[in-house]
Amino acid sequence: MKRQIREVRYFLFGQHFSDGLRITLAILIPSVVLYRFGQFETGLIISLGAFWVSITDAPGPVVHRRNGMLYGLLVVVLVSLITGFARLNVWLLGVEILLFSFFFSMFALYGNRATAVGTAGLLAMILTMDRELEPAAVWQYGALVCAGGLWYTAISLTFSQLRPYRAAQQALGECIHEISKFLMIKADFYSIRTDLQEDYRKLMAQQAIVSEKQDAVREILFKTRVIVKETTWTGRLLVLTFSDILDLYEQITAMYYDYPSIRERFGKTGVLDDIARLIRQLAIEMDYIGLAIQSNRPYKSRKDLMRHLERLKTKIDDIGKQDTEGSNLVLKKILITLRNLNQRLNDIHTYSPTVLSEKPQKNRTAEYSRFVSHQEIDPKLAVNSLTLSSSIFRHSLRVTIACLVGFVAAKLIAYGNHGYWILLTASLILKPAFSLTKQRNYERIIGTVIGGLIGVGLLILIPNTTGLFWVMLFLMIGAYSFQRTNYIVMVILMTPYILILFRFLGLGGISVAEERVVDTLIGCVIAFAASYLFPHWESQQLKNLLRDVLVANRAYLRKLVESLSGKPLTLLEYKLVRKDVYVSSANLSAAFQRMTSEPQSKQWHKNEIHQFVVLNHILSSNIATITSARLNAEHPSACPPEILRPVRRSLTVLNESLKKLDPAPPQPAAEPPASEPVLPEKPETVVTEDRSLKEQLDFIQKVSHDIGKLTDTILT
């Protein structure tokens, strides 16, 4: 029950719920106010403009949001005017649909915000094409749409100005929430009752979500000037907390052990259940910290985890005394890791103003900029993408064909007065990936049917207009809160909201519900059929993603070699390499998950790709274990050549695998060749061979060889 309560609180204090409230108020206020003055139709057009611009207001830095909304406003006003005149001639309208559906779909080349601007343009065209507008009224219509867009932009920017850190707090809290889920999945690896392959599948899927949330936090933190400059206590706290959370995530990722072995050796002792229980308690503690940050409230630890750690230590010591032949060293390592995690959690929620008041370094802004991607709006990218080898070009062709077919179907099928719903459904369902289109199709149909039944029931049971208004308000907030996170819930809530709105407009109830369901089914059929045109299967890009993961792990391994060779390890460079590993692994995991939803005949080496994902996770986890330990050491010593031999062989194997995946893989200019890492001829400090380190490096070599064999199998 406590977990469900936390989930509800995360939702209520989260970015998406606050967005839902803001969008609902911005849409509702013009219509309600002008209704009082007998200008309800005028208010609806202003609300429509506010809704279209709200689509472009995706979470991110305020400057990017402002620019996105202003460009979106320009697009929807121009499209409204053009469509208002084009609709007077059916052939001219058909040409507009042909050109605009392709043009706006190509916006996906420039990132999510540009995609949202293109979506707003498409919606403006579709929702204007059936409006009864005289030529003289088109200009007034465009002006009212512009007023609505400006109204929403003003509200959104005002909220951001009043609470400049709120978006960053919400994004950071959501990121910690997802990392806590990642840690919760890690606990299952120590339970003898779970299937390890299923645990890895869940872990890889969650890794993709965590990577997405981390990118969202980087976007907001490192591209928001007031936070990057660290001139306030809150700004420094957010940046420092995110940095520590990334280090904490690295520790969680590095928690790799030979799970089949420890399950076999210690499963009967019950200690693994204790470890799993303690990891879950740490995950819950982390979840509460994320909730405190998201809700902007202080948090005091509710658990005495040190007491549980001491109990675990006692049990591990008892196992060591009883098992004279074996060794409990691996259990002691797990205990040390859990203590470190607990200490990091304590540090995060006990930051003091003294710690955060230290003068920030002048070059911090430049450092932060290296952790975020920068998307330039270059027309050459669109020109170069006009080829069937581009997935976005193929997607744009599919959307164009689907919209044209939907337009013709709407004109030929004389069922109701809202034929544009067919185009609306087809354009919104189609996604660049086949699996996403398939999922959206299913969710749209189920959501529309369920929502239609709910809507009809509400119209029958609540004849009172005031009651319907409050129900509609609730549905609006819910629909706009879930529009970016849960599509099926959004559709379920949006459908009765639309039906109630049409009742207020005097356009009937049950008949409109029937029409919406029929039009949705037609649109879904068109979209599903179009998804088979010029398909771009996930398997077609997996080879590049496999290569990216190997390139990232090779760079990660090189940092380990440099550290073991006695070369000082720069923290910034190490974190950049670590980020590349996380991002590339998450991209591969996400693509693999999408591929499993595609037709069986299009799934390329499904089992082998899964093993490849798991092995690379194991490889990066072991690299992180050694490298982070050396970073934390005060004076790490250089290792003799014989210790380095396994890791040098690992680099050679990774290079060979890369050559097979791509005859000419990208080589970092500043890096030495993998087979000949830079080693000091005579290390200043020669240490005796560390058996534990040697075993870890030997294991890294074994995993690298397994990856090499798997690469051969995949390419066969």
TrEMBL record:
Source lineage: Bacteria, Pseudomonadati, Bacteroidota, Cytophagia, Cytophagales
Top-level lineage group: Bacteria
Record's protein name: Uncharacterized protein
Keyword Cell inner membrane found: no
Residue stretches making up the Integral membrane protein YccS N-terminal domain: 70-343
Pfam family, one: FUSC-like
Sequence ranges assigned to domain Integral membrane bound transporter in this UniProt record: 411-529
Listed transmembrane segments: 69-90, 97-126, 138-159, 396-414, 449-475, 487-505, 517-537
Pro residues compositional bias, start-end: 663-675
Signal peptide per UniProt: none
Localisation per UniProt entry: Cell membrane
Taxonomic source organism: Larkinella humicola
Residue ranges of the region described as Disordered: 660-691
Topological type in the membrane: Multi-pass membrane protein
Keywords: Cell membrane, Membrane, Transmembrane, Transmembrane helix
GO cellular component, as recorded: plasma membrane
